Amino acid sequence: MKRTAGDWLVHVLARRSSENRRQFILCFILLAAIGGGAAGLGMLVYHSLSRSDFFQITEIRINGIHRLRRDRILTLGRVRVGDNLLSLNTDKIKTRLAAEPWIAKAEVDREWPNRLIITIKERKPLCLLNQGGKLSYVDRHGRVFAAVEAGDELDYPVISGLPTAAKAGPGGPLSLALKFIHYAGLGSDFLPRQNISELHFRKKGGEILFLADRPFPIYLGKVIDRSSYSRLAKVLEWLYKHRKFKEVSYIKMGYGEEKILVVKNR
User: Fold this and answer.
1) Key word Cell inner membrane present in the record (predicted)?
2) pLDDT of residue 206
3) Which of 3, 97, 99, 204 is exposed most, by the fewest CB atoms within 10 A?
4) Strand 158-160 and strand 144-147: pairing?
């Protein structure tokens, strides 16, 4: 039986170490394309190899997934075991994967001769946004990237009261809320991120903070920055150490210059 150039190359590759197979393939195709002006020969070899069982994918390794499932990644990428590794367009696979809201970044690499490696970086929610009774995930950059579905994780601070058209631009209400939640993630044991239940925006301005383990509201006012967070954390620390939480009706910030008003129950 007559052997084609592709059959000969497959035979040679099978005898070479895996480390230099890729270099050998590229050099062979390049030489075939320029040697003697035979550009068509290079294409002939490529098409033969792109249909060869030698480059048939036997393993697809997917790294970095936590929320997303393996079968979801394969469906999005339109790739499967048995495809030809040489003929895959990795850029198109990455573009298809990027259409999934939970994927922040995707890398697709070939490991010759028959393994495909997909590395996923998933988006991490910072909080939930409640608009019009619908919950969505928001990342630390203020990107509202996915709607909450049945069975999804809900243990995040909730931002509510914002109009549907609210944007996450610098200095905007959503941006301010994200900064406050970010500060809580850095620091105080008395006002940690996990203890923030809800940040509610009032129509007349200002935010109301509700804690997960305390019934009283905290009126944050219109200025939310690192210093105001630190002052509030110190007040909560004092209330905790002196066992005064049960006496508190509400807390109001911005009550005079750098002052915090703690109102007791009657």
Assistant:
1) yes
2) 79
3) 204
4) unpaired
Residue 40 reports pLDDT greater than 80: no
Which residue type, as a one-letter code, is found at position 113? P
Rounded CA-CA distance 94/121 in Å is 12
- Sheet with 103-111, edge to edge strand ranges: 59-63, 115-122, 103-111
Q: Are 45 and 5 in contact (CB under 8 A)?
A: yes
Residue 265 pLDDT > 70, yes or no? yes
Q: Across residues 233-244, what is the average pLDDT?
A: 92
Upstream peptide bond of 113 is cis (omega within 30 degrees of 0): yes
Q: How far apart are CA 60 and CA 80, in angstroms?
A: 8
pLDDT tens digits for range 5-38: 555 455 545 554 444 555 556 555 555 555 544 5
The domain in which residue 255 lies consists of 125-264
Do 25 and 131 fall within a single domain? Answer: no
What the block records as the tokens of 240 is 């905790």
Q: Does 199 share its domain with 233?
A: yes
Residue 248: CB partners within 8 Å, gap ≥ 6?
214, 216, 239, 262, 263, 264, 265
